[in-house]
Amino acid sequence: MFYLLHLILLTYFTGNIYTLAEKYPRSEKNGQELLLCRKCGADVADSYYLFSKPSPGAYKTEKQNIFGQQNVTVQTLVNPFGINFEVVTAEKARCDNIGPNQGADSWFPGYSWRICACKHCGQHLGWTFEKTDSNAPKETSENIKTFHGLILKNILGENFTDSLIMMPNMYRM
């Protein structure tokens, strides 16, 4: 009798766990998606923290629907050596900042920069920009002291990587 009651309770609670999990499917994250290092897959940022920080020196600026967000500002920035980078800006990112702050050749006036590298594998992900000039243009929402410029070709969205993993037909139900 005890085992039968135990089996009924276990079945009941296990069924509720599955029901609760199905109420919140993975796709319902309000457009949020993790951004991953293209080289090793480590978490770099959450798309929730993407924001528009226009650079006056951008070669090209456009809006794209990427990383589960709509109208993300993608800028083509060119360094002094003529190398183009498609960059998105994020308020927060997980990266190691390498070297001292550099004020020269900053794409964002009033901000110095350092290389932003993946904490896991050291891949160059972009740059961290830190406010150096109190006279820099004021932001519309708040005065942002630090932000990151992430190179699009060096990051991936988690939903894209999930789409690459396919289940063999023999295992599909």
Automatic annotation (TrEMBL):
CULT domain spans which residues? 32-159
Record Pfam families: Yippee-Mis18
The UniProt keywords, alphabetically, are: Metal-binding, Signal, Zinc
Record keyword Metal-binding present:
yes
Q: What are the recorded GO MF terms, alphabetically?
A: metal ion binding
**Membrane: present as a keyword of the record?**
no
Q: Where is the signal peptide?
A: 1-21
UniProt protein name? CULT domain-containing protein
- Protein's organism: Mythimna separata
